[in-house]
Amino acid sequence: MNTTQSSTIPTVKLLINGEFVESRTTEWRDVVNPATQQVLARVPMATAEEVDAAVAAARKAFESWRKTPIGARARIFLKYQQLIRENMKEVAAILTAEQGKTLPDAEGDVFRGLEVVEHAANIGTLQLGGLANNVATGVDTYTLLQPIGVCAGITPFNFPAMIPLWMFPMAIACGNTFVLKPSEQDPLSTMRLVELAIEAGIPAGVLNVVHGAVDVVNGICDHPDIKAVSFVGSTRVGTHVYNRASLAGKRAQCMMGAKNHVVVLPDAHKEQTLNALAGAGFGAAGQRCMASSVVVFVGEAAQWLPELVERARALKVNAGHEAGTDVGPVISRAARARILELIEAGVQEGATLELDGRAPQVLGYADGNFVAPTLFSGVKPGMRIYDEEIFGPVLCTLAVDSLDEAIALINANPNGNGTGVFTQSGAAARKFQEEIDVGQVGINVPIPVPVPLFSFTGSRASKLGDLGPYGQQVVLFYTQTKTVTARWFDDGVVAPVNTTISLK
Ligand code: NAD
Predict the structure, then answer these.
(1) How would residue 362 be classed by pLDDT, with cut points 50, 70 and 90?
(2) Are 399 and 419 in contact (CB under 8 A)?
(3) pLDDT tens-digit profile of 12-34?
(4) In angstroms, what CA-CA distances link 164 with 161, 183, 342?
(5) CA 374, 376, 380, 384: dihedral to nearest 10 degrees?
(6) Does the Cβ of 214 fall within 6 Å of ligand 1?
(7) pTM value?
(8) Measuring from atom 31 of ligand 1, which residue has the nearest CA?
């Protein structure tokens, strides 16, 4: 763990019971600009006592927050969405500095989270129960969707705005209180969004933030007063969180790693398809869980490979805040080293390196964690570049003879986050949609992340837990359905003893 001792570097605060406080920990980690290696801040690894204090504040606040009227809850999120809009450019600039993605993409990161906040402002219509009148004589049954208590969120580095905003707005809008554990690699934009949430009127204790890594995450999984855990991150850590939190009796939903295949049929719109593949494969330097990381050319579409290589080569690699940048640095030196190691493994294992981005020259940013677009052809299952999530600007391509073969390949891959098909044939697209065993499908859409009118529905090895983040599914995740069966006696009518299970 890197720790810079200088006292001139700002520290990231914890949020406990409405106060932004300095951690008492002795363990700190640097937040580093990936384009320059400048240390932007120091983030604490919170102590067990601080995690306890955050959970205790959330537990206390739940007593009143759970009874706060829907309208009062909703109005906070109306105000919050306005504040996010007003501060969008500032949050995006912080995000680019700490995460590396381009400024327009950082604004996209904030915007996709903002959409969830807008949806949270609509909580009144989302948290409706149901009622069946006269299920037996004089008997009605109805359901209430009640908040469950203290919920927690653990987030990854790659979307430090969108993913925290997938979590706490909907949990809190449903009447829960929340403890957020942002990524320790880039917590600054998340914290700016948390400040705006407090400014919007979220009461003390309803939203709390602790920073840290393994110990804090384990503390959250084990804490008896936390009722539900939302996690987004790698498959290895998400599986651990799911098992540990479930063992402690919590609800858990874990959205995890991916290998997203895009199928290109020969009848696809060539220019649109190639542009989409370059954008979705290399945007955010490939650090998206929904990045298109494997292109499956069907039949004659394989002849488009050289043009895809040229589009990849044309992308501009530079610091994210520089105008015109397409591909910024990857998050850390360690991430870059891992990506380079995987590229070398691809070469060793016999894939054809069509475009080698291992040593880009980025003027003025010699220390940046840059990897330029890299493209392999002839990739096969069993190669590490196919079997592992690279999470960098590396696109694997391969060719098959038929749509059936492409579908079989994808269905045999353990991951199920996203997939896509490019074609002008409705019949082929419909066949793909029907037969593919992946939770999110794009038809001529390379990154099919649903808007919050729907839920994020990754599947198989990319997801543990039944319910996804945001949308209607997360309302069910963050509430307990209580079913009430009620009879009100009519004066003077006495029912006889009923010894059967039937409602009479
Ligand atoms: P990560 O798993 O390393 O970290 C995620 C969180 O877990 C962080 O808050 C981190 O502090 C914590 N953590 C890390 N190691 C831990 C450990 N050993 N024990 C307990 N907690 C630990 O993930 P990352 O590198 O920050 O993010 C990239 C990953 O996230 C990729 O695999 C990507 O596909 C995935 N992701 C998935 C989705 C999705 O919706 N499916 C969305 C975004 C990112």
Answers:
(1) very high
(2) no
(3) 999 999 999 999 999 999 999 99
(4) 6, 10, 30
(5) -30
(6) yes
(7) 0.97
(8) 234
